Amino acid sequence: MALIKIMTVVGARPQFVKAAVVSRAIAECNKLAPAQSIIEQIVHTGQHYDYMMSQAFFDEMALPKPVINLGVGSGLHGAMLGAMVTSLEQEILTRRPDWVLVYGDTNSTLAGALAAAKLHVPVAHVEAGLRSFNRRMPEEINRVLTDHVSDYLFCPSEGAKAQLAREGITQGVHVVGDVMYDAVCFYRQKAILPEYERPYALASLHRAENTDDPQRLQGILRAVGQAPLPVILPLHPRTRLILERECLTVHGQTRILEPQSYFAMLGHLERCAFVITDSGGLQKEAFFFGKKCITVRDETEWIELVEYGANRVVGAEETAICAAFPWAMQALSHVPELYGQGDAGERIVQLLVQSAGGARAEER
Questions:
Q1: CB 170: neighbour CB atoms within 10 A?
Q2: Residue 174 bears catalytic tag
Q3: Which domains does the chain have, with CATH numbers?
């Protein structure tokens, strides 16, 4: 008989990396205690559906195959969220999980949390407590609402825990570390090193605040083209469509690539001199690899990186981005353990198992 049934809700590229960490920890737990195994069922909302944005991660990281892909796809936020909640409610009623596990801050995250909370199924949120304090970002709305309906909140840092306390959330809060650090520790040896031998910078652009404003996006691209090194820019499909629609161009020694697999991105992080990004995950991954990061946003959730001096938030102003290049060229001298020791996945699984054991004891 299963000790606990977990329904994991994923839908976007960053979530596949995070879920792979916890799924591996679940498999290890089952090996140690086969008589009390954990059943995990992964439900894919279909938010990301391009092969390199979705299936490649399942293939590459040996992530368990989803029990269903809801095929929601992209669209307006309300339509996406409504379709996801409707389908996820039915999955929860059918599968009757003990926990619904959600990751990060996407529409899939919020949909999973809302569907479970409405059906009185406990919600566990991995990467809880992060705040940009910019309510214009859809990700900010998603993470705030998810935290406020979650029963277990797994924080990557003490700062995230403190933020939850400021919002009155103190029950079920655990600082476990960052599952993305777990992923880098485990998969770094499998990194696919790129063919480029000469020094270069790595960039990514996909946030709506940048891509939905053609002038802002073009300004960022002009600045990236002035980097002191060639720049590799794996392009998100949505960003590519906007470039084509608005007839925007890249500048200087910027080289556009197709979306890269996770192992290929690890290879780029190993080789690059520094990172330019509006991604939340890539800010941390740059730090894990000892590279400085120029964040082309007006704020960041990862304030520890700014305070330590590993991350510089410069917005989208061309001159501000260019002014950060000399700073970024100087490698970090030390990478402290700001986000745990690489065992966040194990700690999450242990806490979920303990919660199930406690609930069954109360039932008896």
A1: 10
A2: no
A3: 4-178+340-363 (3.40.50.2000), 191-328 (3.40.50.2000)
